[in-house]
Task: inverse folding
């Protein structure tokens, strides 16, 4: 029997453990290297099949842009597959936008995976990934389903085994346009490329070199976008200072404006049990968004396109 609906479908966010800009293509696109790690801060989407081919989005929280990545992803899959089916897509938004956590891209990837399932297309992951890249540089990662070392403009993914860890993630009220960051004169565009070394013994997977993380500190690399972001909007750096004071480390994710800190066993949160959903109300500064997050071994929908 064909599916009529899919409810409570997750779209997890990600962190860039570091983000290096290693060059620039002739067409202006920046070439990056970055380990992307999935976390348990997620949006929730619901999909109901339509027989009339219509595509409608319903916002269950804050209003989203009229033509967001979810609708664009749905149209792309509908057009490429030639299906006569449509869908009502409802989004309960939890991941803050303008944060560098890939919330919109993750929603688009979940839409591709869910509609592939709901419409009975049975497309393999590689075919969905071909639709993903034109939607946005982060979308192929979320379609891929694994924590990954991402290169190029987002199209080259090497799955990595990353030890599960807890991260404190915060975002100030300010957001910064990605285009503004990539066009900033302070942006470094010639960081020396990293060679991904080591093998886990499993075909197609690599282990991150152990020096990439030591103890509770993010000991390797940097986010090349962070100086430009802080120069453009100094207020976002408050998050770095707030995390440093509590956990001794911090780094911006993506193009900002969210920051994260590795939370270790010697901190007040620790890694021995489920992470707290939020900080106490009187600890997180007014207007900030934040959660204690745990990294995911793989995307919750990893098996939906195998």
Result:
């Amino acid at each position: 029997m064909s599916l009529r609906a899919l409810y409570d479908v997750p779209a997890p966010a990600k962190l860039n453990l570091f983000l290096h800009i290693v060059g620039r293509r002739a067409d202006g696109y920046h070439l990056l290297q970055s380990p992307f790690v999935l976390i348990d801060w997620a949006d929730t989407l619901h999909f109901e099949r339509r027989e009339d081919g219509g595509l409608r989005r319903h916002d269950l929280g804050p209003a989203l842009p009229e033509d967001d990545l979810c609708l664009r992803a749905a149209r792309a899959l509908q057009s490429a597959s030639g299906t006569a089916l449509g869908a009502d897509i409802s989004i309960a938004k939890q991941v803050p936008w303008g944060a560098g956590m890939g919330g919109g891209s993750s929603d688009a990837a979940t839409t591709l995976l869910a509609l592939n399932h709901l419409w009975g297309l049975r497309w393999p992951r590689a075919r969905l990934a071909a639709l993903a890249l034109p939607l946005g540089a982060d979308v192929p990662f979320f379609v891929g389903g694994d924590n990954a070392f991402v290169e190029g403009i987002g199209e080259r993914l090497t799955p990595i085994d990353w030890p599960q860890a807890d991260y404190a993630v915060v975002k100030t009220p300010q957001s910064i346009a990605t285009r503004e960051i990539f066009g900033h004169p302070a942006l470094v565009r010639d960081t020396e490329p990293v060679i991904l070394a080591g093998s886990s013994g499993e075909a197609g997977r690599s282990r991150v070199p152990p020096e990439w993380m030591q103890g509770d500190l993010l000991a390797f690399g940097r986010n090349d976008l962070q100086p430009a972001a802080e120069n453009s909007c100094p207020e976002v750096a408050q998050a770095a200072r707030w995390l440093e004071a509590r956990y001794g480390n911090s780094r911006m994710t993506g193009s900002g404006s969210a920051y994260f800190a590795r939370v270790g066993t010697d901190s007040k949160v620790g890694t021995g049990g489920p992470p707290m959903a939020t900080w106490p109300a009187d600890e997180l500064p007014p207007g900030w968004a934040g959660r204690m997050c745990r990294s995911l071994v793989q995307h919750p929908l990893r098996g939906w396109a195998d």
